[in-house]
Amino acid sequence: MENPKYGRILLKLSGEILAGDKGFGIDPKKASYLAKEVKSIFDLGIEIGLIIGAGNIFRGIQAAGKGMDRVTGDYLGMLATIMNAISVQDALEKVNCETRTLSAINISQVAEPYIRRRAIRHLEKGRIVIVSGGTGNPFFTTDSAASLRAKELGAEIVIKGTKVDGIYDKDPVQNSNAKKFDTITFSEVLKKDLRVMDLTAITLCKENKLPIHVLDINIPGNLKQLILGSKIGTQVIGK
To answer: What are the pLDDT digits (tens) for 110-163?
Structure first.
């Protein structure tokens, strides 16, 4: 009998992962892979909240740097998260996972409005809840949205699935001597200015004693092994 370490989680996926090898847009094969990874823990009885970034389609802050109004850019980014959410919902339903997409932006033709009580009810009924549209406000990233929704929905942990196998003291791609942390405190993350998540997200988790775990979602089975208690990636805990 497999005994999951957590009962309810918030899984934050980087939008770039959905692009696969293309580097841009949505790769249906990658969406299918991610759906199977999520299903592996869904079948354990885990209640799952899911948030997907928009880096594979649009980044408001980058558009602002090229002259677009920041608020306009951020709203376009929120719309991009909805596109990603619907894509992953389609892939999850193809592997028989009951799913609901909720949006902080009113777009009722494709997603339910995000209402906290409704989202919790879906989780209690055994549905995967994909939360899209960020927080519904400009100047907040999907990392911040993940921390906020995790706390609202009573998640025990925020799991961030990326293409890196944990948190390092420097960029491991550019530095062969980069040191990986197995665990690190929130204070150390802030002091060392490690880009695990943005400052708002880290601070929100720190103040609410909500742990963050970073892992490489591209390695099959990583997510399930983490849920079952294996030491994978890096956990951010404590003060």
So the answer is: 999 999 999 999 999 999 999 999 999 999 999 999 999 999 999 999 999 999
Distance CA 11, CA 179 (A): 25
CB-count burial class (<10 Å; 0-12, 13-18, 19+) for 132: buried
Q: Is 133 helix (H, G, I), strand (E, B) or coil?
A: coil
Q: Taking the alpha carbons of 40, 20, 85, 141 in that order, is the dihedral positive or negative?
A: positive
What are the domain boundaries of the chain? 8-237
User: Do 25 and 56 meet the contact criterion of CB atoms below 8 Å apart?
Assistant: yes
Count Cα atoms within 13 angstroms, Cβ side, for 72: 7
Distance CA 107, CA 124 (A): 24
Q: Which of 73, 79, 222 is nearest to 162 (CA)?
A: 222
| pTM of the predicted model over 0.85 | yes
User: What class is the 8-237 domain?
Assistant: alpha beta
Rounded Cα distance between 87 and 27, Å, is 9
Rounded Cα distance between 35 and 66, Å, is 34
Quickly tell me which residue has 């996972």 as its tokens.
97
Nearest to 41, CA basis, from 6, 73, 77:
6
The structure tokens 């193809």 sit at 94
d(CA 55, CA 162): 12
